[in-house]
Each structure stands twice: as structure tokens, then as C-alpha cells.
Amino acid sequence: MSKISVISGKSSEDLARKLSRRIKANLVKSEVKVFPDGESKITLSGKISKRRSIVVQSIYPPVDTNLIQTLSLISKAKEISSEVIAVIPYMGYARQDREFLPGEIITMKVLAKLFKGVGASKIIAVDIHSIMSLKHFTIKSKNVTAIPDLVKYFKKLSLKNPLVVSPDQGGKDRAKEFAKKFESEYIALEKKRDKKTGKVQIKTKNSDKVAGRDLILVDDMISTGGSIIKATQFLKKQKCKRVYVACTHALLINNAEKKIRKAGVTRIISANTIPGKTSVVDVSDTIAKAIV
């Protein structure tokens, strides 16, 4: 029997299977029955290693359901394995990493206690929304990035004089890192909010760089797609060519993909941290290297 088990949560089956092959681990599958009241009942099939288990499960919508299932899988693994590593490709609640307004609960602090409580010895996340959120964990934690994997994919595409673009100043470092690996220029758009109306306007000092070029809009996650849509509409007015979107986590809530395409995006390319038809970039190798 393999000295390592990869336990696959229902939200990350494809990624768990690919990871188990890469590290030559025994794959343990989970079957989930959801009762009419919303409760989940999980049954595992396969042998769990006594030495080390790796639980792979993304916490995307339904977030609370996937969180409870993740904690349950870790707890079961800990009953048998001496070491349990939790691979959370998409970490829900990462935006709730501090008290923005008085009385707000820092949910990431709660999650950190829960993961430790059920027996996780290490957490591995991919492009977590806030690195600060990992500071709440008292167990080992590591964030890895999908940028090199996304860059590798984009290098295979025939793009015309490509330019990497961040939809806002907050993502400037991400765009810079992508552009460095992609060996191209980058710019970061600036958002200006009207204090009276709340309306957001986009501007940039470098709009003259956009005309006639294929663009790669880089972001860590796309939820409803609002930022990407506004950025695309602005860039199209600057006479760019095609607009591609590169992101790690494609949540694409409320018909976001259709709305993004309607705004003029040629294609959305995302990692397989969240399964879906845009999730064509495999991050199992990046995760495998972080496990060692």
C-alpha cells in the first residue's frame, strides 16, 4: 500500500486525481449524499494511509457545505493517519481576514481554529485572496501561486504584441509577476469612484500602450465579473485587439461568464482550483511541489 493517501473531496475530484498520480499516492474517493434538510453524509472508498493523508477540497459555493465536508474529511483522515495535510485550492472566507467595521467577526480566525481542531497539520492554499488571512493559522500554512502555470498556457497561444493588464491598482503586483514570467509589458488600470453617485470610472496613464495589441487581463479570482467587465469596456474604447482573461479562481457567479463574453472578452482561462469549462490550467504539479 502507498505511504501517502490523497482523499478527494467532491468539490475537487479532478485536481485530487491528478495530484495523486503526480505524487504516486493512493486515491481515496468520497461519495456525498445530501439530505432534504441540507445535511451532507460522506462515505469514503479506499484505503487511508497510516502515515500521511492529503485532503483536497475547494471551499467554493455552496461555501458552508463544502467547508463542513472539508472538516469532516480531515477529521476522518486524522483517525487513521499520523499526518494530515489539507490542500484547499480555493479558500472561501479569505476576504474576512480582519475587522473592517466594529463588531465584525473575523471568520478566517474561526476557520483556523476549526482546521487545527479537526487534526490538520498543514494547510496549502492556491492564490489565497489575502495572505494576511493565513496569519490566523497556528499550524503550518503555505500559499502557492498558479501564475507560472497560467503563463505556460498563454505562451502556447498566438497573441499579437501582448500586454498584461491589471483591472485595478490592487492587482498590480500580480500583473507585474505575470508579465515578468510572460516576458511582456504590463499596466495597471486606476479606478476612480464618484463620492456623490458612487459610480466607478476607469482611467490609466498608459492607455496609449493598448491600441492594436492583444491584452491579458490578470486577476486572482472572478466572482460576478464586475471589475473585468468595466475594464474590458474601457480597454475596447482604447482600440485594443482581443481581450483574454487569466485568473486562478473562476467562480463566475450569476451568469458572469456570459456577461464577460458580452463585454468583449474573447476567452476566460482559469486554473482547476474550481472545476468548470474555463478551468483548463492544471495546478497539481505546483501543489505537489508544496507538499514535499
Tell me what you see in this structure.
- This protein has 292 residues and is of the alpha/beta class.
- It folds into two domains: 4-145 and 283-291, Rossmann fold (3-Layer(aba) Sandwich), CATH 3.40.50; 147-272, Rossmann fold.
- The protein contains eight helices and 15 strands.
- It has helices spanning 13-22, 63-80, 107-118, 147-155, 172-182, 226-237, 256-263, 284-291, and strands spanning 4-8, 26-34, 40-45, 52-56, 83-88, 122-126, 140-144, 163-166, 185-188, 190-193, 200-203, 215-222, 243-250, 265-271, 279-281.
- The strands form three sheets. A seven-stranded mixed beta sheet has the order 3-2-1-4-5-6-7, with helices on both faces. It has a six-stranded parallel beta sheet with strand order 9-8-12-13-14-15, with helices on both faces.
- β13, α7 and β14 (265-271) form a beta-alpha-beta unit.
- α4 (147-155) crosses α5 (172-182) and α6 (226-237) packs parallel to α7.
- The longest helix is centred in the first third of the chain and has 18 residues, at 63-80.
- It starts with a strand and ends with a helix.
- The model has no long low-confidence stretch (mean pLDDT 95).
